[in-house]
């Protein structure tokens, strides 16, 4: 028997298919059953990527005037919150010769400008909408039907799932979006997250928000809310993708940016590290060590920093040695340099770094002006 390696380091990740593909396939199957009166249990779908899917139809409900059926979402080896949900299409005849596509329960409604759909429309993106129309039209042509149809896409679990997505922040209420540009879910969650961050930045710009507020995550959001008294709904959580968020800000024309982040993330910016995930780079200790040395810290202090595990430990050491303020000033200057270099000199940026234990640690020149512009003359104190 041939030996089998314990770890397959070259495993190919399995792709899945999008909610858009599910909706189009369900609409195709429901239309076929409505016009033929014959139940079908499988449906094929050619995706925009050129991949043909063979999908099982579930939960079929037929009547004389309408058919409702579902396709189960499969996200492949990149499972998200929609993995395993049922995406329904309900198709019924209507007067005239038009095909109308709309969203029902669990499909969000657009409430803010800046998205592809108009305000009030169902959050069914452009490509999925085209896929649905194409599949329904093809079935009608094959069966010689030239009347009107109404296609309602429903995702019953979408109401609850939406609460765990970016949708409410993007101005999509009541459900999730029907998404997909290729019809296939590629196992690249990092890419999907970056796209979501970029979309949120674009939506805020389209809605007239003049100052873009960026923070990596929940610590920053809490600091914005509790210390700066800034509405966290105005902020974009950029996770580790600071560089990509700044690039999008430039792309959409932001001229004022306020960045607020925990020292554990933002200290990395002082070395020009714009993806702050630990798998990309750490360098927190090295940054504190180098800047402490430049500020004249003695060997004992530098060795203590080198042995420290957390940034709060490093801050405590610098505080005890009397170097914290000067080191943080130097670090903030380097952060400003790299961020401004990424953005360009025409964009006004303010950057604030804090620690949960020690509070405000440093801010760049102009930060306070942006905060005052955002919330009024309630100056920030440490």
Automatic annotation (TrEMBL):
Database matches in Gene3D superfamilies? CbiD-like
EC id: 2.1.1.195
Sorted alphabetically, the keyword list is: Cobalamin biosynthesis, Methyltransferase, S-adenosyl-L-methionine, Transferase
Q: Name one Pfam family in it.
A: CbiD
Pathway in which this enzyme or protein is active? Cofactor biosynthesis; adenosylcobalamin biosynthesis; cob(II)yrinate a,c-diamide from sirohydrochlorin (anaerobic route): step 6/10
Q: Which HAMAP family match?
A: CbiD
Q: What is this protein called?
A: Cobalt-precorrin-5B C(1)-methyltransferase
The species this protein belongs to is: Anaerosporobacter mobilis DSM 15930
